Amino acid sequence: xIVIALFMFVFVLFALFFLYFWGxxxxxxxxxxxxxxxxxxPTPIFLIAAVLLGLLLGNGVHILSLLxxxxxxxxxxRHQKRNEExxxxxxxxxxxxxxxxxxxxxxxxxxxxxxxxxxxxxxLALANVAEQEGxxxxxxxxLLKARDLEPKGIxxxxxxxxxxxxxxxxxxxxxxxxxxxxxxxxxxxxxxxxRDLQVERQEWDDALALQKRIIKxxxxxxxxxxxxxxxxxxxxxxxxxxxxxxxxxxxxxxFEELSKEEKVATPARVSLGDxxxxxxxxxxxxxxxxxxxxxxxxxxxxARLEDCYMQAEDPSGLLGFYRQQLRENxxxxxxxxxxxxxxxxxxxxxxxxxxxxxxxxxxIDFPQLHLLxxxxxxxxxxxxxxxxxxxxxxxIDNHLKLGFVCEKCGTESSNWQSRCExxxxxxxxxxxxxxxxxxxxxxxxxxxxxxxxEV
Length: 455
What we know:
455 residues; mainly alpha; 3-stranded antiparallel β-sheet; two-stranded antiparallel sheet; 20 helices
């Protein structure tokens, strides 16, 4: 009622205004539409008609605008509802994926993808399903579609490179990592992944270049020490490659520089001595190996020294080195072990036994030591002592036990147990040669009369 009363009041005001306006404007107005067509109206009517037409047009535009907004809002609400439903289906699919129900996960994620094929996350999740099902090509196809939707997507590129690598498509993995690095040049994860691939492929120059970028990007980080160590290792691999290619002088310069770096000193010194040996400079090689042993006490240097002096047909030089070092440090059991082995090699049996017994008397017990003592006793024709050492080397007891080994971790055990003491695996102890025996097939044997058997 109030609205009607208000409308009537406005209408009365408008009518009074119209009569007043007409009263003070009694003239007519002629409007020509063409040169010979015109219309004549009282001026107030023309003006009021113009005002009403303007209001009509304005309200019409406003109404059309409201209708457009309503339609757009309806479409937006519909799209949002569809999007929410898609997200709900996607989340359920991811939940099934995480719980290991791959069949249900595939159904849900495929349904979500059919509803919205522009969602990168759905492509990624479905690719994970395909990968876990062992369908690497399907996973790759899905990830390629995701890459088309988001060419610079870091997550997509990482996943694609990972699947390529798992599928053995190393070149594609390398190219994908390079695309990723081109997008994000300081992405250390991508740089490390590509570096590791290049290390596997023994592309040492590329690996070294990538490692330099990693160190630059990780300046001051917690892993910088390990990264620098790897840098030296890659430099060593390049020097070793050059050495094998015959670029000996270049390799020697690199080995000498690298021998000053703690983490690669041993391989650098060994390879430096090998390089001198290849050049025929036996004395320099011996100096490198001797210095290497004195600095690091590593057996590889003694083994190389032995080969070096035997190549030079000068065992006296190595004997002099051993005796001199034992005078200075008689507690060096590693030196005594190798000295004993060398003496046995050049038939100095008594001195070999002396050195090997010195090692044994210290409480050290391992098969190779017993084998060396067994061989020394055999050469002295002390058969009982030799047999005893062989028994110790082979760990043969009076019961002739064959022993057991854990199939999971390889730990040996003299007695069977239900659970491995090292790794805790249940029912994993088996005969070490079980698989070989099970796979073997006995040959058909002919009966041979006693006394006619052949060895």
